[in-house]
UniProtKB/TrEMBL annotation:
GO terms for biological process: regulation of DNA-templated transcription. One of its GO terms (molecular function) is phosphorelay response regulator activity. One of its GO terms (cellular component) is cytosol. It comes from the Bacteria. Residues 3-116 form the Response regulatory domain. This is DNA-binding response regulator. It comes from Paenibacillus contaminans. The modification 4-aspartylphosphate is found at D52.
Length: 232
């Protein structure tokens, strides 16, 4: 059974959503504030999080950042904000999807299932260690654990950053367009814009490169896209 945490202070929506998702076979817990959500995340394990943008005691965006670095649980942002900038912001900080209020419960369910399918695809273990562990220069990438270690220190990446790095590192020297990275690294369930890839790559470089201005791992191929450095 999928364990879902819904962080929402709109009680009417929460009650309707809990009833619907429980009828669909989900286990649904709820929190109405950032503080309550953090307490639940520290004490329990969840498979998916629905997160309201604006909460009484803080920002859902800031909480999403924490979730990506500390718990690495898939997150769907729920908000009345409809501006494209807000959608891009949510996706750039690591949200896996973004749903604008008001929404139908069937659409919500379909989007949750789509993200979970993508997560299962990413976390599928390989048959032998060599298939899921990569060493590229000073980076050690573990596909099964979703971890990246450099100089004996683990680097906290969002799922999107990890997926992009993994796809590029598996094929050093191969040039990917932004659309190819969206399709091959992130899958059909990715809800984002082509240029959002640039923001994810920029954030990734800040974390893995000694000098993000002169990268050695993730390289820009001008006019086309990106590739992973060869001979590392």
């Amino acid at each position: 059974m999928i364990r879902l945490l819904w962080i929402e202070d709109e009680q009417r929506l929460l009650a309707e959503g809990q009833s619907f998702l429980q009828a669909e076979g989900f286990s649904v817990a709820s929190a109405g504030t950032v503080r309550d959500a953090e307490a639940m995340l520290n004490g329990q394990t969840f498979d998916f999080i629905l997160l309201d943008w604006m909460l009484p005691d803080g920002s859902g965006i800031e909480l999403c950042k924490q979730i990506q670095t500390r718990w690495k649980t898939p997150v769907m942002m729920l908000t009345a904000k409809t501006d494209e900038f807000d959608k891009v912001l949510a996706l750039e900080i690591g949200a896996d999807d973004y749903l604008t209020k008001p929404f139908g419960m069937r659409e919500l369910l379909a989007r949750i299932k789509a993200v979970l399918r993508r997560m299962n695809k990413w976390s599928e273990p390989a048959a032998a260690p060599a298939a899921y562990e990569l060493t590229r220069g000073e980076l050690r990438i573990d596909e099964r654990k979703h971890t990246v270690v450099k100089k004996s220190e683990e680097i906290p990446l969002t799922r999107t950053e990890f997926a992009l790095l993994l796809q590029l590192a598996k094929h050093p020297g191969r040039v990917y367009s932004r659309l190819q990275l969206m399709d091959e690294a992130l899958g059909d369930a990715y809800i984002g814009f082509e240029r959002t890839i640039d923001s994810h790559i920029r954030n990734l470089r800040k974390k893995i490169e000694d000098n993000p201005v002169e990268p050695q791992y993730v390289l820009t191929v001008f006019g086309i896209g990106y590739k992973f450095g060869e001979g590392l």
